[in-house]
């Protein structure tokens, strides 16, 4: 989506504590260190079809149920303007959820929001779209089979993504290139596990002409001997203008990227 459609003895105790937080132990690492191994995708505790968008305010714990689109939410392609499975009001938290196929337009955050231990098995149009807030947080979870983008940042502010796994994707994060109202946006990626597919993919796409800033730390890239995964792609709106680290827009160094 490129423009707004509308304005898991001590070890056992530790593991149990992480589960209570909704984070998988395989996705939890020391801050600043790359994930140790490929993410273990969770099994669903059940499945629930969703025929109309579920509105969330406050905190919703999905209990690791798989939600998938039905009826009007059966889209799984790249058509613009699809409705989401979940729509989060400002300040809402969604946790312990699996979004299956069809995934429609995933999740919309209408303001500040938190996505905790959310897994997308087959990304539809986008996994999540962020707009209208100042700080958005994604912690734990993962996404795969994203024909285009995973996270679409249409509103202002900063998106923080940590302890996240992504595979079979084109772009993990994109700052909107053609929204009717544009902003300077920021994204922080920390402890991200990336599985390459042998074709070109981007971790972030940012608009340098808008002053966007991407900070990458603890990135582990698997299965990418050909270096097809681009850590930071620079755009002037929708025109590609370069890649690689610098001191202004793409903030990372070679030590922040580990290839395995």
Please tag this protein with its features.
disordered N terminus; 18-stranded mixed sheet; 260 residues; mainly beta; globular; 1 helix
Please, could you describe this protein's structure?
The protein has 260 residues and is mainly beta. The protein has one helix and 18 strands. The chain has an 18-stranded mixed beta sheet that branches. Strand 15 and strand 16 form a beta hairpin. The radius of gyration is 17 Å and the shape is globular. This is Pectate lyase. Belongs to the polysaccharide lyase 3 family. InterPro entries: Pectate_lyase_PlyH/PlyE-like.
Gross geometry: globular
Low-confidence stretches: 1-36
What's the count of strands? 18
Oligomer: single chain
- From the N-terminal CA to the C-terminal CA, the straight-line distance is 31 Å
Short characterization:
The protein is mainly beta and 260 residues long. It has 1 helix and 18 strands.
